[in-house]
Amino acid sequence: MKSNKYVHIALLICSLPIMISCNKGFLDKKPTSNLNVPTTLPDLQLLLDNTTDLQRSPVLGEQSADDYYMSFSEWNNQFLLKDANAYVWAKDIFAGSGAIADWNLPYKQVLYTNVVLQQLDNISRDASNSIAYDNIKGTALFIRAWSFFDLAQVFALPYDSNTSGSDLGIPIRLTADINAPSTRSTLQQTYDQIVSDTKQACMLISLKTAQANGNRPSKSAGYGLMSRIYLTMRDYKQAGLYADSALSLQPKLIDYNKVDSNATVPFTLNNDEIIYQSYLATANPTLYVITSQGYSIDTILYRSYVKNDLRKKIYFSLNGTYINRKRGYSGSSVISNGLATDELYLTRAECEARNNDNNKALSDLNALLSNRYKNGAFTPITGIQGTALLNTILSERRKELVLRGLRWNDIRRLNKEGYNITLTRNLNGQIYTLPPNDPRYALPIPPDVLSLSGIQQNNR
Question: What is the rounded distance in angstroms from the CA atom of residue 142 to the CA atom of residue 135?
Fold first, then answer.
């Protein structure tokens, strides 16, 4: 009966016509009036446990980054034109097509959370239900923040405090009212809302660490998300403090010596490093990097793993002349972009290095790497500081977090720091480039959204 009840609630939300980002598109359609809106705390919790809908993130950033490449033949024969266009950073990626999951899925999640938050206003919070009430509210705010953050990484320019007050952000929908108009906030307003939602979630959620499957946010997840947000904003002091708070609750690292390097699926879903699980949207070229010839991990990146670095064999397999990425922290064929302790060790180390706290930065870096090298083969890194230390940490971040949905975010922020990373594709002799700080680092708003809502397109 629980399963049937869940289906009923999910269908309710889906019936609200969910072109949730294109408000004028559903202004002419009204949800049927005979449906029962969830009104109890158990029903609202059940709605938030719908991981199929709520734990999916845009993939266009990962598709646009430089961890992988595809052959000309594969690129030329992409089933969806948008995937071929995204790969070469075309001006018009969507070529008139609508119903883009990278936009629609996060806004569907926002609608779910806004329904929950609205319904909570109609439930009296008292001593008998306060813990459940607060956890549900905190979870809804966490998921809404996660969704807004995902959207900002793909459809808005990288954060820059000097221009964030005038740069365009994303539509910030804070109501379940489908008649409410959509307007693009500034980038500063976008991040202010993301930070506000996440901070509230941290205060409300009582679960301290990840439960099995990592499908409900915990305090450590809230702190971890705050760290990821502030790192993207290049507020390295706050990013380091929140990484520290998350790791104080959940510090475990996996000893890769205990991982089967010959396994196709080296990691389980419930591994010791997962803090919160999320997955990139399915049906995209990055999935083929896992199994197919014609798709490969960047060869320069692959060669950067030195002898006795266990990640080279645990992460990758050779497929003819191509290098495939084995299944990662999702424990399955989908790509995990969830929060994990390895990311936070590297974030904390980077922030410590930027703060000239060299000993702590080296301690965190060595703590991670000592679990990544063959037993007895790792010599702790010592005696470096300043730029050399920072670059070493960033290099290890690239190697550790390959195909984890974070490289696009990192390129965007590091180019703001002057790293001058230029992305290049070579397709049958035709060279495509994406220079640092190019306007194309904000992907275009889907055309159906523009026509139905009237919001402004990104400059391409």
Answer: 10
